[in-house]
Give the backbone structure.
Amino acid sequence: MSRPQNLHEVALTTIAGIKPFGNAIDEFIDAFYLDRPDKARQQRRLNAPPAIVGDPFIDAWIGAVGEHLARRWNLEVPAWTRRPAHYQLSRPTFVPDSKALRGTLTTESPPAFRSRMIFTFVEPAPARQISARRPAYPATLMIGAGRRDGCRGLM
């Protein structure tokens, strides 16, 4: 089974049930960073519009990742990231879902996540924990632990 090479493949892999979303997004992020410093290759990984998965959280997360990586690395933000399907969360979602961290997450969350009502740490990164409200997703789903737990950042 190959790694998703772009966010389009992340969505298709998730829809088909080939691998859990958390694994697919982590593998994409790994591939994205392996292209550094080749900005043209990184841009190509973001350009293909992903299919809509149908889960508001996953669709919002995919849109946020596409926008965040583009802005963070001075790439062109793909137009698909502004599709309404990437803004369908009906209430704020905190990742991790800790009442004690909500103030920090609200303040630190990157704009691409915050605009989609996802609140996470300032330097999103694959994490080894997940919101208790999302137990069906693997532990690696969350982009958000940042450097607090030693995970690599999306810097």
In short: The longest strand covers residues 93-94.
